[in-house]
Amino acid sequence: MQTKLPKVGTTIFSTMSQMANEYQAINLSQGFPNFPIDPLIEELLAKNSKDNVHQYAPMSGLPSLLEGIAQMVHRVYKRDVNPAAEILVTAGATQGIFAAIQALVHFGDEVVILDPAYDCYSPAVHLAGGKAIHIPMREDFTIDWRELRQTVNQKTRILIINNPHNPSGKMMDQSDYDALVQVMTDHPNLILVSDEVYEFITFEKTHFSAHNHEILRNRSVIVSSFGKTFHLTGWKVGYIIAPEYILKEIKKVHQYLVFSVNSVAQKTLADYISTTDVTTLGKFYQDKRDRFKELMSKSKFEFLPSEGTYFQTVRYRAISDLPDVQFCEWMVKEVGVAAIPLSVFYEELTDYHTIRFCFAKTDETLIQAAERLCKI
Questions:
Q1: pLDDT one-digit tens code per residue, 20-31
Q2: Rounded CA separation 357/28 (Å)
Q3: Number of other residues whose CB lies within 10 A of the CB of residue 125
């Protein structure tokens, strides 16, 4: 069989989680919480499962959920969005990104991706017949805007930005935001895919969103995730917001990819979204970040800034010279803790001896993991 994705194998997330199970290690690798969801969501889900909401939802999403999303965007970003024309509920953020790339990228188009990058971007570009152009960030995960400006050209169809950034936990600042606006201004045919699934998990720094600038929001596909925001990663429900002229093309792909998203989940989210303050999520995870760092204070790991997301990147140069993939395999087997090596997020497999821990875990899990890691 001739593969269409020769560079794609089993994801590092599946590999490390499988190893964690095999060696009974504490899993701080894959990015999912291990604590309960809000009991109110459970109550609403139980109620809705008994109501007549089990058939196909409308293709774009339940009207009540679309309206709820629009109201939340207005509360948080002071932006008015047309729920009927500018919002699409997706089967997770990844499906939204995939549908957007399939709809907007034509054969030979270039898509600029900043490495380290989440692993779903590049395969979607290849399947669309496009060319993924990878630009490495600096070692501190800041963007080299000079190189980016030199790279973007008339063939560039899409620029993908991930802010807050996975896997590094880095966030764009005002100068980055200004540089992004300038790039979009200089290239009027360029479309921005702004992956903002961790938009509400931010700490000391202000989150700059494509929602906040007219030039960006008029030419952006903004990707969000209920899984990240409400600790519901297994529900696989997200949404994208884009101008109608862009979203109508994405809907053409979406309707033949999944058509519509789980109706009971949508109804439950529609009932829940108006009852919760998403802006409190940052404080919740900031406490977990600080707790994990405190527990690890006697370790030999070098902690890098975690400004957003629920990930903490660390360097292990004081511990080992092993390549990061081998180091993570060694940790699972010998230490009993699973992490993610960052080299797998680079097209060139760049290895800065940096790994990523997920701190979206109970205090008990973080305490047990830190005890093991501090013994290295």
A1: 999 999 999 989
A2: 5
A3: 23
- Cα 122 to Cα 23, 97, 158, 356, distances in angstroms: 31, 11, 12, 21
Question: What is the distance, to the nearest Å, from the Cα of residue 72 to the centroid of all Cα atoms in its chain?
Answer: 19
223 near 195, Cβ under 8 Å? yes
∠227-221-120 over CA atoms, to 5°?
Answer: 55
Contacts of 28 (CB under 8 A, 6+ apart): 337, 338, 339, 357, 358, 359, 361, 365, 369
Give the helix/strand (H/E) hosting 341.
Answer: strand 340-341
Task: List Cβ<8 Å contacts ≥24 apart for 4-10.
Answer: 4/126, 4/127, 5/123, 5/126, 5/127, 7/122, 8/123
Q: Reduced to 3 states, what is the DSSP secondary structure of residue 6?
A: coil
Residue 139 exposed, middle or buried by CB count within 10 Å (0-12, 13-18, 19+): exposed
Dihedral sign for Cα 319, 323, 329, 330, please.
negative
Pairing type for strands 87-90 and 238-241 reads antiparallel
Query: Tokens in use for 48?
Result: 């809705």
pLDDT in tens, 169-210: 999 999 999 999 999 999 999 999 999 999 999 999 999 999
Half-sphere exposure of 279 (CA within 13 A, CB side): 8
Measured on CA atoms in the order 91, 92, 98, 104, is the torsion positive or negative? positive
The token pair at 337 is 């803790």
> Token digits for 373?
């890691």
Which token pair is 211? 């929602």
What is the model's pTM?
A: 0.96
Token pair in block for residue 160 = 């993908």
Angle between helices 363-373 and 281-295 (to 10 degrees): 30
> Residue 302: which H helix or E strand, with range?
strand 302-303
